[in-house]
Amino acid sequence: MKKTPSLSSLQKQYERGRRQLSQVGYLSHGSVQARTNRSGGGAGYQWTRKVARKTITLALTQAQFRAFQKAVANYRRLQRQIQKMEQLSRTIIFQQYPHPSRQKPLSKKVLGTN
Question: What is the pTM of this model?
Answer without folding.
Answer: 0.77
